[in-house]
Amino acid sequence: MKRYFLPALTGTLLLICRFVVPPAHAETTPVAPVPPPITVTLQIMPNPARRGTNVGFSLTARNTTQTTQTLRFNSGQSFEITATPEAAKDGEAVWHWSHGKFFTQSLRSEKLAPGQAKTWTATWNQSDDRAATLPRGKYTITARVTANGGLKAVLATLELTD
Fold first, then answer.
1. Among 3, 48, 98, 111, which residue is least crowded by beta carbons within 10 Å?
2. pLDDT tens, 35-86?
């Protein structure tokens, strides 16, 4: 039986570790954040909105890379939009675009060529999930594309006025 195999292997691993782990005093160079391959933007029209009027949303996913990207969905739902009163202490959304809707339970995908965008639109009548008209005030609008585990847009504020 040859006993030198394990010590030789252990020495090799230690040697590799010495090159991989930098010394504690080594300087590090900050790395610029890598932009996501698919960006999501949200437009709200009008904003501010008069109470009792419909509010329109436009949610766009854009491929920002030089290669084709795939949006992978777990159901027929492509996006979600919610409204949460800024004054709400619990942070609970009072309106969900998907409330009361039914979606197929199927896997599907859509490809986005370099620079290509896909846009979804929705309308909100300013009522909550129980069909009650919401009071004036500011609402945080959250939107996300449901593909790839959820691609979020930047939060936006919508003001409902009299």
1. 3
2. 689 999 999 999 999 998 999 999 999 999 999 999 999 999 999 999 999 9
Structure tokens at 11: 């020495």
Is residue 143 within 8 Å of 81, Cβ to Cβ?
yes
SS3 5: helix
If you search the block for the tokens 């004054």, which residue do you land on? 87
Token duo for residue 45:
């029209």
Global pTM value: 0.76
Closest CA to 87 of 124, 139, 142: 139
Q: In what order do the strands lie in the sheet with 117-124?
A: 38-45, 55-63, 117-124
Distance CA 61, CA 66 (A): 15
Q: Are 156 and 44 in contact (CB under 8 A)?
A: yes
Q: Confirm if 64 and 120 have CB atoms less than 8 A apart.
A: no
Tell me the two tokens of residue 25.
């005093």
69-99: burial string, b at 16+ Cβ within 10 Å, e else: bebebeeebbbbbbbbbeeeeeeebbbebee
